[in-house]
Design brief:
This protein is of the alpha/beta class. It is built from 7 helices and 8 strands. The chain has a single domain, classed as Glutaredoxin (3-Layer(aba) Sandwich). It has helices at 2-20, 27-30, 65-69, 84-98, 115-124, 138-143, 173-179; strands spanning 40-42, 55-56, 62-63, 74-79, 104-109, 132-133, 150-154, 160-165. Helix 4 (84-98) links the parallel strand 4 (74-79) and strand 5 (104-109).
């Protein structure tokens, strides 16, 4: 019962965080450093190890961030189908994932729906990213993420480089500048 209450409370917090978004981060606005937990660029967690927890891949099989990364830089995006800024930025993450020379892009749904619903949602939006899912919202909790979308860049060593809270055009100049920090 307590776990159900905590999951509901976290979902409410994430929903309100998504709704608090004043709109997308402009390229200029993206340059402003965020206060920890607020929208924008946040480097306060740099050096923190990638959380070890179980996620579901697009086939509903168990996996983890470290298994996905396999020693390479990883761009992890937390999103949900009910979060308008998340849905708005998904196509730019998809386009980024198609480029060469960028970190692997992993979009992880925080929805509690069945995995086939997440796959169908992405297909309906014409987004080719794999339908990773964290229906227990363990990753949001481990990262202390209260606003969706939240995107975290991990280096090949599994350590956080930065996180960006709020939506961003991941094909834009500011994103390209940030992604050059991947190592």
């Amino acid at each position: 019962m307590r776990a159900l209450f905590l999951a509901a409370a976290l979902a409410a917090l994430l929903t309100s965080g998504c709704d608090r978004q004043a709109g997308s981060q402009s390229e200029a606005g993206a340059e402003v450093a965020a206060q920890p937990g607020g929208p924008g660029l946040d480097r306060s967690q740099a050096g923190k190890a990638m959380p070890e927890l179980t996620l579901k891949d697009g086939d509903g099989e168990d996996t983890s961030l470290s298994a996905i990364a396999a020693g390479k830089p990883l761009l992890v995006n937390l999103w949900a189908t009910w979060c308008a800024p998340c849905v708005k930025e998904l196509p730019t993450l998809d386009a980024l994932a198609e480029r060469g020379g960028v970190p692997q892009v992993v979009a992880i749904s925080q929805d509690t729906a069945a995995p086939d619903k997440i796959r169908a949602f992405l297909t309906g939006k014409q987004v080719g990213l794999e339908a990773y899912q964290d229906s227990k919202m363990g990753l949001s909790s481990a990262l202390g993420s209260q606003i969706l979308p939240t995107t975290v860049l991990y280096g090949s060593d599994g350590k956080e480089i930065w996180r960006f809270t709020g939506d961003l055009d991941w094909t834009g100049a500011k994103a390209a500048e940030l992604l050059r920090e991947a190592r």
